[in-house]
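re: the backbone from monday

yeah here it is again, tokenized this time
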């Protein structure tokens, strides 16, 4: 994670130097959060081995978890979430959400670092669009 943050900070330093030489230039930055492949076949080599067996249920469960953070799940959705959740061993569930949490933490640190660098250089604020 330290390597990733160092790369992000280096990128923002370079971006800042460009901004100082041409302050009116608009620069855009984006970061992608961890994707959740639809199933084991779509996971390729990027996901842990357990995704081949549990990937489809992880995908469906995580979609319902995300939905539950926006609105109350229907009775059928809550029952489906419980079924998916029970089919995934606890160790695997924990690993998946720990990796997801780590990815979100790095992204939030990236945004905070970018904002701090731009404020210190008087290059203007960083505008964040949080779709979650």
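seq for it, each position gets an aa:
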């Amino acid at each position: 994670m330290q390597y990733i943050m160092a790369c992000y900070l280096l990128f923002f330093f370079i971006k800042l130097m460009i901004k100082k030489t041409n302050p009116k230039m608009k620069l855009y930055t984006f970061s992608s959060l961890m994707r959740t492949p639809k199933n084991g076949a779509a996971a390729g080599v990027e996901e842990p081995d357990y995704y081949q067996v549990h990937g489809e249920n992880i995908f469906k469960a995580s979609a319902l978890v995300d939905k539950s953070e926006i609105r109350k799940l229907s009775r059928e959705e809550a029952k489906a979430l419980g079924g998916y959740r029970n089919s995934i061993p606890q160790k695997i569930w924990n690993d998946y959400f720990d990796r997801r949490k780590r990815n979100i933490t790095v992204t939030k640190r990236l945004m905070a670092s970018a904002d701090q660098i731009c404020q210190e250089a008087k290059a203007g604020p960083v505008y964040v669009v949080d779709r979650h």
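The longest helix spans residues 90-120. The chain has a mean pLDDT of 78.
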